[in-house]
Amino acid sequence: MSKVVSMSEAASIALHGVILIAREKEGLNVLKIAERTNTSKHHVAKVMQRLVKAGYLTSHRGPTGGFELRKKPEDINFLEIYEIIEGAIEIGKCPMDKQVCPFDKCIMNNVTSKMTREFKEYLREQTVNQYL
Amino acid sequence: MSKVVSMSEAASIALHGVILIAREKEGLNVLKIAERTNTSKHHVAKVMQRLVKAGYLTSHRGPTGGFELRKKPEDINFLEIYEIIEGAIEIGKCPMDKQVCPFDKCIMNNVTSKMTREFKEYLREQTVNQYL
DNA sequence: GTAATTTCGGTATTTAAATACGCAAATATA
DNA sequence: TATATTTGCGTATTTAAATACCGAAATTAC
After folding, report:
1. pTM to 2 decimals?
2. How close does chain A come to B123, measured CA to CA in Å?
3. pLDDT tens digits along B44-94
4. Is the CB of A87 under 7 A from strand C?
5. Which residues contact A52 (CB under 8 A, 6 or more apart)?
6. B6 closest CA partner among B84, B86, B79, B81
7. Is the dihedral of CA A1, B95, A51, A24 positive or negative?
8. Which residues, in sequence order, are CB contacts of B20 under 8 Å at separation 6+?
9. Structural domains in chain A?
10. How far is the CA of A45 from the C1' of D15 (A)?
11. Any atom of strand C under 7 A from CB of A39?
């Protein structure tokens, strides 16, 4: 019923989208990415925009337009892509967003820090070329 | 800037509240719990209600009213309390909530499952008496 | 019995984040 | 140059979840 670790559709689109684009020599447009990720073209467009701005994709408008990778698949890891969308992942933040802990010692005892470190490590290890 | 693992204020109030009540022999009322957790009395009241219904607390109205633990502190672990508020923690759920994965193999490769398992284990190991 | 205090429980509001929309700008083709 | 196609970008809407409110009911003490 409840979930501890979640990922926004935006981050999902970004990661899947980059892989899909990498797989395609010709470039891929919004509509095709939307179809293949089973999401709305509006949302895909929004997300791709940000990857273009961040320098990971080049875009072309008009017929035959679409997106291409700007870097080699082996030089892009998931963490970079993820953080463009979500912002830098912070380790050691209070999971309840408390500025001041009401208790002497935190009851979550840094378990969330450990988990976050793991998540970050995983994302850093995955490169796009591993998913071609 | 971004956070991977988070906890609602409600779950935080539940866990901290139960510990605070356990520390007090006399019982504790909404207002005091709110003060000591630095949260609103409205929200505390709401959360405590649920713990009463779930059988973890007894409540008394009127002056000298408040809440008391119904079980021994060593017999209450964090997981039980957490799940009353958030619902059962599910392992193995797609972090993007996809019903059908658009890819042959999941790009998150069960890292989130592992993290969730860890989180659950941690909560299960913590009992209230460890925080008296 | 009255007044003060406190929880109960239904509902309302807020909020933040995510997602969707729609027009503008660019490009290709014919 | 006209038309079709596609991305760009600002904004609107949705949504779900969290949080706050408020009158009612219970209890205590004097």
Report:
1. 0.90
2. 8
3. 999 999 999 999 999 999 998 999 999 999 999 999 999 999 988 988 888
4. no
5. A58, A59, A67
6. B86
7. negative
8. B28, B32, B33, B36, B37
9. 9-131 (1.10.10.10)
10. 21
11. yes
Q: Is there contact between A8 and strand C, defined as CB under 7 Å from any strand atom?
A: yes
Residue type, B6: S
Structure tokens belonging to residue B120 = 């659950």
CA A41, A46, A49, A54 torsion: positive or negative? negative
CA closest to A15 among chain B residues = B107
Protein-proximal nucleotides of chain D (any atom < 7 Å from a CB): 4-10, 17-22, 25-29
Which residue type, as a one-letter code, is found at position B118? Answer: E
Residues B98-115 have pLDDT tens digits of 877 878 888 987 788 999
